[in-house]
Sequence to fold (1036 residues):
Amino acid sequence: MVNEKIAIEHGLKKQEYSKICDLLQRTPNITELGIFSAMWNEHCSYKSSKIHLKKLPTKSNKVIQGPGENAGIIDIEDNDAIVFKIESHNHPSFIEPYQGAATGVGGIMRDVFTMGARPIANLNSIHFGSPEHKKTRNLLRGVVRGIGGYGNCMGIPTIAGQTNFDESYNGNILVNAMTLGLVKKNKIFYSKAAGLNKPVIYVGSKTGRDGIHGASMASAVFDEKIEEKKPTVQVGDPFTEKLLLEACLELMSGDSIIAIQDMGAAGLTSSSIEMASKGKLGIELNLNKVPCRESKMTPYEIMLSESQERMLIVLENGKEELAKKIFDKWNLDFAIIGKTTSSKKIEIYFDKKKVADLPVDILVENSPIYDRKWKKAKLPKKNKFKKEQFKNLKIVNTLNKILSNPNVCSKKWIWQQYDHTVMGDTIQKPGGDAGVVRVHGTSKAVAASVDSSAIYCWAHPLSGGKQIVCESWRNLIAVGAKPIAITNCLNFGSPENEENMGEFVECVQGLGEASAYLDFPVVSGNVSFYNQTKEVGIKPTPTIGGVGLIKNYKNMVTMALKQNDNILLVIGKTEGHLEQSLFSRDILSEKNGPPPEINLFNEKNNGETVLKLIDKNFIRAAHDVSLGGIITALSKMCIKGRKGAVLNKPKYLIDKFEYLFGEDQGRYIIEIEKTNYNNVIEILEKNSVHYDDLGIVNDNDLIIDEKTKVSIDDLDKSHSIWLNNYMSK
Amino acid sequence: MNSSVIIFPGSNCDRDMDVALKKFGFKNKMIWHDDTKLPKSDLVVLPGGFSYGDYLRCGSMASKSKIIKSVIDFAKSGGLLMGICNGFQILTETELLPGVLLRNKFSEFICKDVFVKINNTENKYFKKINKQTLKLHIAHNEGNYFCTNNQMKEIEDNNQIALFYCDKKGEIKDEHNPNGSSKNIAGIFNKEKNILGMMPHPERMIDAYLSGEDGSLFFQNLIKNLK
Amino acid sequence: MKISVVVTLKKAVLDPQGTTIMKALKGMNFNNVNDVRQGKYFEIEIDEKDQKKAEDQVSQMCDKLLANLVIEDYKIIGSQ
Fold:
């Protein structure tokens, strides 16, 4: 018999349970309680985040589908559209890194091909604890293998990513996976059911007792009892998913499907309820028809199983045979498990008995919404750096130290384990500002990047939230893409903690302001709260996945320096902001102070002007200036191009460390030919864009001033050595 | 020229191969593993990917597919049969080629550009090719070629080694061996040289905007030799 | 002593390899195959003459490294 105690064990709050009883005007049975607990937990209901997420800009003339579907969709012209989304799989990856990461990648790809799109690129953003922490190395190895294991087998290139280390992730790593898919605008599939008495079809793998209550785990704080929660981790089967992808796309090429939804978190429960809710219909299911892997599964287990690689489809009448033939060909399970009804209820039968009978709107529209208490963050006071602090520092040593910092160094060890060239359209590989894939068979290409700046967000959430959107925008522009839209993965601590909730609210606010200003709307995303071990939450880590379009892929730009004697310019003003910079934190060990300010006007103006220069074919190489400042950005350009550079003295009075290592925002380094110099300057001046003459491209050495030079080989060594050494231990 | 690419469940370089073959003038057909008959072909390709998820042993289950019997008959009668990456693994599992492909030496998946040196040009694949060292691309977890000493002797006696991993200049050294392959072997022939298995993917190198065009060179030369 | 251990996925955990192998066997007309589960086999040589102690140590190795108890079980199947 269900009672309050059992409800609380299911993760529901006392008030939530009494609300359920009031709405139903009876006590739910155990299957129904399970359904409520899955639908009303944070992961599915967004109960703590909803009121804040509503404020995000989600529309533009390029947006075909905003948040609320399996993934967002943007228009890239000529009847082509890109479907994309990022999602977290943090908690499972900490418990079982290989399978956790693998199923995360599998889940996000399903979200994309559910909409009719063939996945064309994967990206990921992964965050680990301090490199010295005893678990970090194995977690990193497991996660990287898991991501590769799944994506490689599916034959989808992993084109870009980001890896960070910070002690705040010691007990809660982050694994955020993003997928882009390509679809014809007139062949998009949605999850909205329509029509009465339409067959509801189950396809894919069989249902086992996998991950029962995985969605609730994603919404729980870790504690010592974490071991007990272990059996909820699922095993991924990329081979079956590859078959499922091909089978679904084959079925989608016809006109048999009314609605389709993947069974992700909360499996059959959330997929059937979502389809019914969107279509304002009822759905009747007979659980005896569900293909099961294990014997004696109960209705409760079948409804809550999170077995992977499954889909639910509402089919047109009379198409059952045709659909079955396709799934038989691909050796996948196919079963008619129910039908649509006019009842607006979810009615579930098992052994000829009705085991659940719930009105859909009670589950969806009446789900709890919380306006959690939150604390506003103050802008930290500026530090007064004294010049004496820098006096004994040597620029070259400092630069080498920064290039070998775990958060700056080359991540080749990681991305070399991902197939990044399969499908034959990857024209910018990992290691650049953004990954770029061609739209197969056209002159277009799509650029994508994932970014996060937890340090800035932690120091001041509002500025950090803005910064991260701007960084994504810059990374797309630096490869010559016009930024179109973003997806976000909001990784935070507990919403029940006022400070963590404050970080969430203000990061979202900053994110919204920047994306509204830049006309860079949010089209999909996911919230991951409770990244917390006992009382300690992670640093606030919103991850942004940005997508942009390059109309002619031949105009794509890379960061590699190209030609001796070409001129290097810094676009955007260098004030020398050191607080929260890598230089300040890593070299001076100063962890306080405000993050760099964001000037949205300059950001937009600088970015758009750089794009103009690229369109006019004036730019030979470009790179945005971020972590580690100008000299770090330039070093990476040198390493990529196997070229050196000779720097000019800054034309205004500024400390050289501030000039070289400051992390002012809205900046790019560009390489142009001498003959185009006047044309470029004219365009910059006409658009009131600040620029500095940084220097000239050269052979072999980076020459910073008369007394300071370093060879590209040395820079390369500093940049590439750390991760290889770390992983070979 | 007619070519056929076999699709196994889990193949994922089938489309890339189709694109490449068509680009260089083949009339290509895609053949499902469950079929029993091959159409008339001048070249049959087993593409890369993860047939049957690479479960059990890479290529083991694909080598038992229905189509394989006709593929073997085709090759035994002298037809040109090429296996790339997972296709190479399938060829060793069918025993059309000697040896096996083990897990990479450092047991990590490797995706990168490599240089390979062509060892034998007395065959339809490399005859008259105007370059000795090609820049190609590898992406595999099990590319570590291994065979018994007797097999190796036979392979060498019959000049069956097709490609060696090497450096830019064609020097074959240990440090350019990406996966621990015996003698830096990247590809081998059967005795008659009509069957070729290789780990590198020429179909990923057919465009200046990808990593390079040495794959184009390979396909252009191949179709010329077939005419 | 030489200890032999088999590590397999737990009964309730999906075994994609086993399932795929089973389907392939059926495709080869081994129609009476109902289920296949696969695993890893280890032989561990250990400087220890006492069988119980050796097995205890191997158990610890399984707990800490050879098996991931989240999804796998292990069984010592021989000691000599």
In short: The domain at 2-226 of chain B is CATH 3.40.50.880 (Rossmann fold).
